Amino acid sequence: MAKQDYYATLGVARDASADDLKKAYRKLAMQHHPDRNPGDKKAEARFKEINEAYDVLKDEQKRAAYDRFGHAAFEQGGGAPPGGFDFGGGAGLGDIFDQMFGEFMGGRRGGGRGPRQGNDIRAAIEIDLAEAFAGTRTQLRVPTRVGCEACNGTGSESKDRGVDNCSTCGGTGKVRAQQGFFLIERTCPTCGGQGKVIRNPCRICHGAGTVQRERTLQVQVPAGVEDGTRIRLPGEGEAGGPGAPAGDLYVHVSIRPHNIFQRDGANIFCRVPLRMTQAALGAEIDVPAIDGTKARVKIPPGTQAGDQFRLRGKGFSVLRSAARGDMYIQVAVETPQNLTRRQRELLEEFEAEAKGNAKGSPESEGFFAKVREFFEGNGR
Questions:
Q1: Membrane-crossing residues (predicted)?
Q2: What span, in angstroms and rounded, lies between the C-alpha atoms of 346 and 55?
Q3: What is the CA radius of gyration of the chain?
Q4: How distant is the alpha carbon of residue 105 from its chain centre?
């Protein structure tokens, strides 16, 4: 009896997405699960068909084979699909597999052999805002793999570094297991994909050519770096196998919050609280800049809370440039607290003088004028 089409088994279109396949499978599997249908042989058989179909279609490689060859792709010893397979000219099943799935497996077999490059390392450092502004040089200790000194990174106890073909993979660097039409290919566990094994391995590194150590590195952080920046140090990662290049070191930079400045790109913001009298009468104040200098800011009379003053070129450094952003002074007018008797008397006199003076507090007078109109319009 011919098998039902896998897509028809799951009730989905041939271009169904992975999510659509999963939803259809879950719905049908729940409906026909043997625990929900005790003693029902048809439900049990249907449940097996659903699982078989989903097992093939959820896998990109298997699905590609099924779309091309149908059920014949998974039948051990079965007939070839329409058009047949061409085994002439020395081509074998593995070659057909390579042609079909080279894109999935990263190229033709054997193409990945050779010295294995060292792994990349990821590390993190934390600096303050002033260091990010000026740039800094900091030390970083990282656990890594370095070249074995005992064998000079060759992995061999002997100076001639004698090597043999790996007996497990026969020198290909890959081992294969056939499952139906599929030929599953994996990196050889014995030689790690090298295809060669060292005849007399180093007693320190056991043939790896590298050993575990902790290294201290100098990391140069450029001026203008932003929070979350990743700095790449080529060749400072783990050492590679014999004759292979080292990996890279990636350093993630975090910047600690500052207690005075807030950064926004190349600009800096500084919140400056002013006494009520300073904002009303005007004043000159000194504010710090991120470069360690002082900047004098003239506060005009009648300054309101939230007003900003711009200091050009006093902001943050720009990465890989001599330019600098701007600094913005944000005014916060502070209401006095814990008044003395004399201060209270003066403020009461001030309030008596200020009543009815629309020019003195135009925003306040304007708001309460609208409030009066609102209540009058509602008959209150």
A1: none
A2: 86
A3: 37
A4: 24
Q: What is the pLDDT of residues 133-174, one digit of tens each?
A: 999 999 999 888 888 888 888 888 877 667 888 888 888 888
Determine if residue 270 is labeled as part of a ligand binding site. Answer: no
Please give the pLDDT value at position 380. 59
- Which spans in the chain are helix H? 6-10, 18-32, 41-57, 60-69, 93-105, 129-134, 276-281, 341-354, 362-377
Beta strand residue intervals within the chain, DSSP E: 121-127, 136-147, 163-165, 174-179, 182-187, 196-198, 210-221, 230-233, 249-255, 261-264, 267-275, 283-288, 294-299, 308-311, 327-334
**For the segment 269-309, what is each residue's pLDDT rounded down to a tens digit?**
999 999 999 999 999 999 999 999 999 999 999 999 999 99
- Mean residue pLDDT of the chain comes to 82
Q: Are 22 and 50 in contact (CB under 8 A)?
A: no
The domains found in the chain, sorted by start residue, are 6-81 (1.10.287.110), 121-126+136-213+232-251 (2.10.230.10), 261-334 (2.60.260.20), 341-377 (no CATH)
Q: What does the alpha-carbon distance between residue 117 and residue 234 come to, in Å, rounded to a whole number? A: 12
Q: Which of 206, 99, 94, 212 is nearest to 145 (CA)?
A: 212
Read out DSSP for 338-377?
S--HHHHHHHHHHHHHHTT-TTTSHHHHHHHHHHHHHHHH
Ligand-binding site membership of 166 (annotated): yes
Tokens describing residue 332: 């916060």
- Helix, strand, or coil (residue 238): coil
CA atoms within 13 A on the CB side of 95: 8
Structure tokens at 311: 């200091």
Model pLDDT, residue 161: 67
Is 151 annotated to bind a ligand? Reply is yes
Task: State the Cα–Cα distance between residues 279 and 332, nearest whole angstrom.
Answer: 9
